[in-house]
Amino acid sequence: MPRMNSASELEEFRKGVLAKRDPDKPCIAICAGMGCLSLDNGRVISAFEKEINTKKLKTKVDIRATGCHGYCEKGPLVVIYPEEICYMEVTPKDVPEIVSQTVMGKKVIDRLIYTDPDTGKKAARQSEIPFYKNQVRHIISHNSRIDPQSIDDYLAVGGYAALSKSLLEMSPEEVLDEIKKASLRGRGGGGFPAGRKWETARNAPGKDKYVIVNAHEGELGAFMDRALLSGNPHSVLEGLIIGAYAVGSHQGFIYTRHDTPQLKNNIDTALAQAAEYGFLGNNILGSGFDFNVEVHLDIGIFVSGESSALMKSIEGNPPEPRPKYIHTSVKGIWEKPSVLNNVETWANVPLIINKGSECYAGIGTERSKGTKLVSLSGNIVNTGVAEVPFGTTIREIVYNIGGGIPNEKKLKAVHFGGPMGGSIPESLLDTPLDFDELSKLGAPIGAGSMLVLDEDTSMIDVARYFLDFLSNESCGKCVPCREGIRQMLKILTNIRDGKGREGDIALLEEISEVTSTASLCALGKTAADPLRSTLRYFRDEYEANIAKVKRPPAEKRE
Amino acid sequence: MAAGQPFEPKILGFLCNWCCYAGADLAGVSRFQYPPNIRVIRLMCSGRVDPAHIFRAFLTGLDAVFIGGCHLNDCHYVTHGNYDALAMVHICKKLLEHIGLNPERLKLEWVSAGEGIRFASIMNEFVPRIEKLGPLGKGEGIDEQELKFKLEAIARLIPYIKLVQSERLKPVKTEDAYHEFFTGEEFNRLFDELIADKLALSQIALLLREKPLSIREISETLGLSPSEVSRYLKASAGNQNVETKAVDKDKIDRIINKYKGKPNSLVQVLLEIQHENHWLPQDVLDRVSKKLDVPLSRVMQIVTFHKTFRLVPKARTEVQVCTGPSCYVRGSTHLLDTVQELTGIQPGETDPDAKFSLETGSCLGCCNLGPEIIVDGKHHGRITPDRVKDVLKNIK
Amino acid sequence: MTMGKPKKTSEIIVQIDGKKVKAVEGMTILEAAQKADIFIPTLCHHEKLEPYGACRVCTVEVEVRGWTGLVAACLYPVEKDLVVKTRSEKVDKIRKLILEFLLAHAPNSPQLQELAQEYGADRDRFEKESSFCILCGLCVRYCAEVKKKNAIGYVNCGARREIRFIPEIAATECVNCKECFELCPTSYLQAAFVLTESLAFSKDSSPAALKK
């Protein structure tokens, strides 16, 4: 496959790919995301392959193992195109029937399609299912259509057109301008304007600059970055290359987890294929722009998701963070300007270039533009990955997409941001999903994990859980974080076990104030946030435990 | 001592010059009788007695040690050395207890220069008491070799214990404060955390100095549970010599050479080696440090930073319990308790037959399956404690 | 942010506790304060070592161009129009609590006791911890940066972080050096050393206490 060296070559090639694809040809898209794979989807995939072979349908039907569709609760998921019939909880036993009835016979198998638990209403098409219908899927929609191991699949849905446009029709400054006008804010938790970060790095002195994809996804309960990167690695890669062009960087890094071999495999394949086609390496698409990417694995430490710690890790050092006032966009890896952005942030870039900043900024709220991927988990009916425009209320997400709380329980709180976030009580559920609105309430959106908690949950336990996690993950360098977390954990454990004392709450507040102002990095600074948010909205629980009022056992369900 | 003859205890006495020695002298001059089993060493202050002296006494086969000093607050030196003796004796008694010897073999008494009768009566009580306890070790049913081994393990640790005592186990010098502290919970806790743990390490180190041993052998020899042994080995990374299959040096070198020259490839190298070898023995870490020209202290820091890197031999099967927040909210704590109960080991440890190791994982990303356990990569989701029994049985 | 223009080190005037102080570009607040004889307490700082920023005792209040914050004086670089307060209610509160945290580990450390008096830190506020190292890192950094031997390093992370000697290196290098011992504000460094000596040094170099 000779490298493509111009926009026209790319478009020619794309036309060729599309010409070979018949839009009416049946395609069985089986979700091979992590959630479905753990539900033994591998056997379903082999069953389909065997059945297609046996029935000699190999030339008539495509089988595609795709990325994560998003509706993890109902996996294994299978979508039959072109009708878009979505089957749920598929087992190998269902396979022959699916092939004969639906693929060949064009009939829908009732027992395998979605049934609304309240109304009993059925929905066969993916786009009719409430979980999908109530989303706005700009970033993750392609996941159910493309095989992450096939770059041609990505090209068939219009991939790399944004890259071609940026490199060949726009100057780096123009690209930067578009990103700034689109008000793209970081999706990893910081919400920092990406355009401003890129500009700082661009203007920083020095020839060597780096761009980095933070695919660490250390936030507990977040799995959408993995779904996106593993399912559609090219979308992230394309964004990275465009970003590198705007910043003036020629070397990129993808920093990802070591414990997901499928993810690494998909990334490696994507990089190799992109290089082969001419999207990486020297003189990309004949533009004169050079760019290469290296993959780095982490060692499972939460703190290595923090930008300065991550950069230290890439350097080969232990991941110890540095204070934020040494901006990594000026002095990052090896003291060179480095732009670090989250997977989802990079995936938004081709979207902005393709649609134009004005159109992109038409979705969302005044200060939070575009869509956001959220991971729904906890006490919720529909766990999975969803994409919603900013401005959607939490209530809409939890009930219309998430399906509400199982076992007819009441919702108590929704926790955002994992160990560095906070909880929103039921009374504030009509808050729109927005960086600033949620921050004001003490529950910053973080990377987008939404942990839904029902009425049986003890908020003290939740606060203690996150502190316990952080006590194992803190690097231990600075005193306020290391010692502060240690002491807060002791007190919280005592309160939880009914051994709380007068003055404990005041002491917790005092320690949390020092920890959040004097710590070296964001881990220490936000370590007490779950505690503070539970104190803010659920103070009575703490006081009751200390006053030793007998409460019904507020423990986890067995 | 010939067989058939009654046991005559050999007791060493450290008597302080100003009070107790004078008191013993007075007993002699006044003809107050007491058994002749004690050999006396005179020193200027009871505070001079070092734990090393006490344990050397026991190592040379003496059956009991007596320390006599001035009454509290009457010490002839402004440093109140007798308080130091008191602290030291409390710790030594705990150490003796810890290795299975009767702590009564070490006695501390305050005798003033004029208390001749008191000295004699103390001896008249002490010697028969030791007679009753029997010879050192034999009386408690400890074999001679084992006793020597344990005493030596303590003796090696004494410089450390002294520093710990002077920093941490030193209340204000009043009788009440000392009594309150050394009979309290805090002393027990600090002793366990600071000394008992290191004592186990000392014993393990001594054992492994002779020859490499497996976890099971160590646990049987020392009477520690295998999970404790693996915990100690992990904690002492760098000081162990556990027996395993010989590491394939060529494979290791090939991996190192693949990344050679790249200063930042340390983590990648370690991950790949662990993927091949399943754990990281000390000599592998040394080799990596030399070949990549990275200080060994930095390698150790990275390798101990997180449980990702295994520093004890891995078992055949790995069992992981997800303790992420979604699984937590769905009951993973109860699940973990059940697993611990059924396997008898704690997270981070390996079972005695190296069949399986237990680990917790924080959010493995399959929240739709919570709570779940993963056995050798296979997910068992939405699992209940009863089903856990079946899953684990299948490993056995 | 200072954009380093090549080589000309320019003078910067900052204000510390109301006093105008002349500083040079590239200096930290701590260096500037020391030059002007203004005292800022430190625990993990040493003139021969790169600033570390771990103890946070040197936290000061700063204000520049409308932004206020609490930063570590040993790390934060001076800049134009910087206003620094080395004592304030917030700063004192932070220092007091940090000292109380550390006193739970090393109540007898002379450096800690001296500072505790000034800030009213109560040494018995928290339950005594077993480890009496305060993890200031002076020993590790001294050995790495000055002696370049790396005989001692950190292991584990978070609340379980501790310093540990590398037995092979310590057995040969430390015997004649021990320069780091006097930097240690507690006696933990000594304890760690004798522990390593007794547990891990080879048979031939075991401590004299064992010679029968």
CATH architecture of the largest domain in chain B: 3-Layer(aba) Sandwich
Number of domains of chain B: 4
Main sheet record of chain B:
4 strands, parallel
The tally of structural domains of chain A comes to 4
* Shape call of chain B: elongated
The first-to-last residue Cα distance of chain A is 57 Å
Q: How many DSSP helices of chain A?
A: 22
CATH H-tier superfamily of the largest domain in chain A: NADH-ubiquinone oxidoreductase 51kDa subunit
- Please give the most extensive interface between any two protein chains, plus how many residues each contributes: A-B, 49 and 40 residues
> What is the C-alpha radius of gyration of chain A, as a whole number of Å?
24 Å
User: What structural class results from the helix and strand content of chain A?
Assistant: alpha/beta
The order of strands across the largest sheet of chain A is 12-11-15-13-14
Silhouette of chain A? globular
Q: Report the total helices of chain B.
A: 16
What is the CATH C-level name of the largest domain in chain B? Answer: Alpha Beta
Gyration radius over CA of chain B: 28 Å
Short characterization:
Chain B has 396 residues and is of the alpha/beta class.
Provide the fold topology.
The complex is a heterotrimer of chains A (558), B (396) and C (212).
Chain A: H1 7-19, E1 27-31, H2 34-38, H3 41-54, E2 62-66, E3 78-81, E4 85-87, H4 95-104, E5 114-115, E6 122-123, H5 130-133, H6 151-156, H7 161-169, H8 172-181, H9 194-203, E7 210-215, H10 224-231, H11 233-247, E8 251-256, H12 261-277, E9 292-297, H13 307-314, E10 338-342, H14 343-355, H15 357-360, E11 371-378, E12 384-389, H16 394-401, E13 411-416, E14 422-425, H17 435-440, E15 449-454, H18 459-473, H19 479-496, H20 504-518, H21 522-527, H22 529-546
Parallel strand pairs in A: 1-2, 7-8, 7-10, 8-9, 11-15
Antiparallel strand pairs in A: 1-3, 3-4, 5-6, 11-12, 13-14, 13-15
Chain B: E1 11-16, H1 20-29, E2 38-43, H2 51-59, E3 64-69, H3 81-98, E4 106-110, H4 116-133, H5 144-168, H6 175-182, H7 185-210, H8 215-222, H9 226-235, H10 249-258, H11 266-277, H12 282-292, H13 296-305, E5 317-322, H14 325-329, H15 332-343, E6 356-361, E7 373-375, E8 378-380, H16 385-395
Parallel strand pairs in B: 1-2, 1-3, 3-4, 5-6
Antiparallel strand pairs in B: 5-7, 7-8
Helix pairs in contact in B: 1-4, 2-5, 5-7, 8-9, 10-11, 10-12, 15-16
Chain C: E1 11-16, E2 19-24, H1 29-35, E3 59-64, E4 67-72, E5 83-85, H2 89-103, H3 110-119, H4 138-146, E6 152-155, E7 162-165, H5 167-173, H6 188-200
